[in-house]
Design goal:
4 strands, alpha+beta, about 300 residues, about 60% helix
């Protein structure tokens, strides 16, 4: 299919149009704030209970606990050097420069940020530490950089071997926690697993800033009328998907729209006010890119 003149002009304009999210001050702010929160969780909670938070920094803490030759921050910095070199050639120079900034900042904070939140109960410490580490990581990942380490490795593996980023992290953490299970008490192992679980949930929420999208499907005999209200009264975009009843064999349009938690209840009330026999299906969507939603992130 050939592109028309308008489409070609849009393609030419892509490098010129820079959203604020690509500005250097905005990205440095995200990376700095995320690093401070992440290290507050590490130095304020995690190290005082000998937890292992997973990922590359978890590996650094494990090495530190066993050897005490170098600080976790210095180990983290040294392990990042070969990964950043690979990322420079295999990912993007801008992405690596931001990641180097974060790795250096995390190293400095690990040495200078001396803090103890005084949480004695292990389960409370795991929850608090996981929340802070996840929140910091989520804010960092909202930038077009990363915290370095496994983020770079995961992107390289995904790009060249088609292995999902989530699968890569899961495989790495399985190996890491197998070592933890063999060398630590069951209490530390379970608390560390809880910390990683809370951290992953906090990361998801801060990555979307508590604005996770919902994909809604509405099956109704008056689907077109509902679609008109959705677009004209609620000012939401919508699409009709052609469906067919399995029993009746009749064609029936299925309304699909994307909304958030705030609008979801209002949409539900509207649908069932118009048709009490409608089928209202809601699916969680981690992210929606394009149109009036979030812009695509380019590293």
């Amino acid at each position: 299919m050939k592109l028309n003149g308008l489409a070609l002009s849009k393609l030419k304009d892509i490098p010129k149009k820079r959203h604020y999210r690509y500005s250097v001050p905005w990205n440095l702010l995200l990376l700095s704030l995320g690093s401070i929160i992440f290290m507050a969780g590490i130095n304020g909670v995690v190290v005082h209970h000998n937890f292992i938070p997973g990922g590359l920094y978890g590996t650094c803490l494990l090495i530190f606990y066993k050897t005490e030759l170098l600080s976790p921050g210095m180990i983290y910095f040294l392990l990042n050097i070969p990964l950043c070199v690979l990322g420079w050639f295999l990912v993007s120079k801008r992405f690596v420069l931001y990641s180097v900034y974060t790795a250096v900042l995390v190293t400095i904070l690990s040495e200078l940020l001396i803090i103890d939140f005084g949480i004695d109960e292990q389960i409370y410490a795991a929850i608090a530490g996981g929340f802070l580490c996840g929140a910091g990581s989520g804010i960092i990942l909202r930038s077009i950089g990363s915290s370095g380490g496994l983020d770079i490795a995961a992107i390289i593996v995904n790009k060249y071997f088609n292995v999902g980023v989530g699968k890569f992290f899961m495989a790495y953490n399985c190996v890491l926690f197998s070592i933890v299970f063999a060398g630590y008490s069951p209490d530390i192992f379970v608390a560390s697993i809880l910390l990683v679980f809370v951290s992953s949930k906090a990361l998801d929420y801060f990555l979307t800033f508590f604005n996770q999208r919902k994909v809604v499907y509405v099956i109704s005999d008056i689907g077109e009328a509902i679609g008109e209200v959705v677009t004209n009264k609620m000012h939401m975009g919508a699409t009709f998907i052609q469906g067919r009843g399995a029993y009746s064999g009749k064609d029936k349009p299925i309304l699909m729209t994307v909304t958030n938690n705030i609008q979801l209840k209002k949409l539900e009330e509207m649908v069932f006010t118009l048709d009490e026999h409608a089928v209202f299906i809601v699916e969680n969507s981690f992210d929606v890119i394009g149109s009036n939603f979030r812009k695509r992130k380019i590293y």
